[in-house]
Design brief:
This protein has 6 helices and 15 strands. By secondary structure, the protein is an alpha/beta fold. A hairpin with a 2-residue loop joins β5 (83-84) and β6 (87-88).
């Protein structure tokens, strides 16, 4: 049995990411306190002196500042809109746990260019090639190889995305969880703005996310290592951290392969 990590680590942003002001809110900050820096804290708490500690060492600890959409995370229906099909949209702590483990299916769209959207015809062609039929409870991952740009400004601006029609298609097949190795589920914000300027059609604004207004589903953004997986025939777990009434939660999805 092999277990493959499908997440990216939460870490301090690179200089290039810091300079990319527009998406700074989605980066994380980690402050590190080593075994020497915490000595005053541990001696005060435990009423001892530095000489009483093993080689004068305290403990190591970190402080993290981030949003619920930093790093690999799972979006709850509440992120997309206040309601789903007229009912209150579920927050991350309200989602059924049995959604987050099941058979995994990987669609290889690594050939797609930035700004292109996955259509139903793309899904059907891929399913035919892999000789597979989506079933209720499958967890679907979209491989664009966008994670290879992690740490660069292009990670935020160059990736394909899902269309509304393709999102509807998968949900109607019984899929509750759709993951992507791109920063976002839709095409980049700049591309959405360009499409709206050209068409003046409000339907192009966040089209895949807004499917959640009508049908209940979750998406995982900022995944990694999907290129290490077969198209199907593996199990996957993707349990999110439960945060009260939150729109998303951090997740460390894994794939379990039986060799």
């Amino acid at each position: 049995m092999r277990i493959i990590d499908l997440s990216v680590p939460i870490k301090n942003p690179s200089e290039e990411e810091i300079a990319f002001e527009y998406h700074r809110q989605l980066t994380a900050r980690v402050d590190y306190f080593d075994h020497h820096q915490t000595v005053p804290q541990i001696t005060q708490v435990l009423g001892c002196e530095e000489k009483d500690l093993p080689n004068g060492y305290g403990w190591a600890t970190e402080s993290v500042t981030l949003t619920t959409h930093s790093g690999t995370h799972l979006d709850a229906p509440y992120h997309y809109y206040p309601t789903t099909d007229g009912k209150p949209a579920k927050t991350i702590d309200e989602l059924p746990l049995d959604w987050f483990m099941g058979d995994g299916v990987v669609f290889n769209f690594s050939h797609m260019k930035s700004g292109e959207t996955v259509k139903v015809v793309d899904l059907e062609k891929a399913l035919e090639e892999m000789a597979y039929e989506i079933k209720d409870g499958d967890i679907v991952y979209l491989r664009f190889d966008a994670d290879k740009k992690l740490g660069t400004p292009e990670y935020f601006t160059e990736f394909p995305g899902m269309s509304a029609e393709a999102t509807h298609y998968l949900i109607d097949k019984g899929v509750k969880i759709i993951g992507t190795d791109a920063m976002g589920f839709d095409v980049p914000f700049e591309k959405i703005a360009e499409n709206f300027k050209e068409t003046q059609d409000p339907k192009v604004i966040w089209e895949a996310h807004r499917v959640g207004m009508h049908k209940e589903y979750c998406q995982i953004e900022k995944m990694a290592n999907l290129d290490q997986l077969p198209s199907h025939g593996f199990k996957t777990h993707c349990f999110p951290i439960s945060i009260y009434k939150a729109s998303a939660g951090w997740v460390r999805p894994i794939a379990i392969l039986n060799d």
